[in-house]
Design brief:
The protein is α/β, with parallel strands linked by helices. Helix content is about 55%, strand content about 10%. Helix 1 packs across helix 10, helix 5 packs parallel to helix 9 and helix 8 crosses helix 9.
Amino acid sequence: MIIAIDGPAASGKGTIARRLAAHYGLPHLDTGLLYRAVARALLDFDHPLGDETAAVRAAQALDRSHLDETRLRGREMGEAASVVAALPAVRAALVDWQRAFARRAEGAVLDGRDIGTVICPDAPVKIFVTATPEERARRRFRELAGRGESVTFEDVLDDIRRRDARDSGRATAPLAVAPDARLLDTTSLDIEQAFRAAVAIVDAAGIAPARA
């Protein structure tokens, strides 16, 4: 049982994926953390984010079982991860591990930007979570401000639009809606409503695992 969740930044896909994993008793992988960790490694050693050779080495050296989320969140890391994720060799270096995670006997929930199109194209449940850029910027602004980061809504909206363009326009594994994915627009939904809508999509597939 693989549940593939894709969507742009701040659409709510990560929260929905975590909630679904807990609801159905499945392991969860936030694949975006992998790219953030690669970007963090490059920044820590003063490598340019576009240094593909160094980025591949960082990807191959990741200890994926000990990702320090406190160092991987925030506006800077989101932007850096978007740059690194556009490097084809980095994506190739991380594909096999992501697919191995998805092949666990009990199944898995994975969220990212190419789960339903590249990592798990045969997943029986695919959900593409989206919202308007303005709403996503409002969510991200509240999140960053709540962590004490000094940002403006306008700057966050610019970041969102820039990341959307980069993620959708990259040559390798661009952000795209899989042909058989269900679209979940969370613009006017709170997290509980969005979660219930996602559960309805999974249950409607008729292959949902027993709830934990």
